[in-house]
Amino acid sequence: MYLRLALAVVSMLLAASPMVVLSQASKFTITYPKENAMVQGKTIVLRGQGVESGATLEGSVLTNDLYKQDRAKATINQDGSWTFGPVYLDGMGEFNNHTIQVTVIRMVNGKLQRGDTATVGGIVRK
Questions:
Q1: Taking 90 as the threshold, does the pLDDT of residue 60 lie above it?
Q2: So what's the pLDDT on residue 25?
């Protein structure tokens, strides 16, 4: 009888309290711009998720050639979200179709190590 009462109390407490869900680490992705997006202007700031603190980002834009985005700065938030910019979309005419690639860079045992890479393509300026 006491066991049934104890189980009933535990069940009521669990039902009354909010459930905590532990999620897996987010996959490294670019959330803005989306694939095949049309964007305003020649510079944009990328947004994404899935980067651990202590890392940084490196980015490139492919039009008629691969252009490393050396002027862009990464901001990594505690929740794993990030921004990276400014990213330059200078392609014109047939080259106004950009593929953007961002790679996670970590320091491991005193050496820089390239990690996950995310890519979005078909980005066109208005």
A1: yes
A2: 53
